[in-house]
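pinging the channel bc i need a second pair of eyes. not urgent but kinda urgent?? the chain im working w is below, pasted from the shared doc
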Amino acid sequence: MDIEVIKAKIAEFKAKGCEVPDMDMIKTPEQIEGIRAAAKINNACLDLIAQKIKAGMTTEEIDALAYDFITKSGGIPACLGFYGFPKSICTSVNDQVCHGIPDKTVLKSGDIVNVDVTTIYNGYYADASRMFMIGKVSKPNQDLVAITKECMRRGVEACKPWAFIGDIGAAIAPFARKHGYSVVTEFGGHGVGVDFHEEPFVCHDSKKNTGMLMVPGMIFTIEPMINTGKREVYVDAGNDWTVYTQDGGMSAQWEYTVLITETGNEVLTY
């Protein structure tokens, strides 16, 4: 990746009036390797959760599992203490859209739950979330989980050098709506790697050829939040964190961290 060539091409797009990234948003080879190392721990943590999660567990037990694995691997759970967040991961069950706080809630057969893990390792961040279906899950909820994952896959597929961030949402939202779902827009993907949340913001309902230019070396998350009902959400006034669907409909989310390469993209976390 020749940084001078990249700078010249960015200048060409900027001259055309396009929104372009600052150079500090383009990760160096050293930074990319550091983020890959954090991603390795993050992926392994979610793999472990996938093996252990089951009906009868509390979300607090999942949190403890993640904390122990990440810290024993030499990492730090990024969520713990982040703006006062009290736990190491987020667990969002059924109509919880995101930022659910692990507690004594017992998972039961039929639940769908998003587990969102972010790991800091040697100062670098890696972020991902997966959906888990507990026990016997209804066909509508199975479909929501599957379609949401396909939404994310389509978003990842749209990630190419010299395309635009808006292409991601343009690939996701029509597919979600085709299946009768809505797309949350208050929350979205974000740059990640050197810090927890960086630019750019990645909206999952947007127009093609809009937004910031995607440039080799950029790293950000794609994490569509898809609702069975309306897209409107609210934040729990009791804890100022947990986001719920306004109408009580189910919600699902998958999250990958993606590196833009010279030829396409590389999925770092899953």
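so The CA atoms of residues 125 and 193 lie 4 Å apart. and The first helix runs from residue 3 to 15. — does that match what u expected or am i reading it wrong
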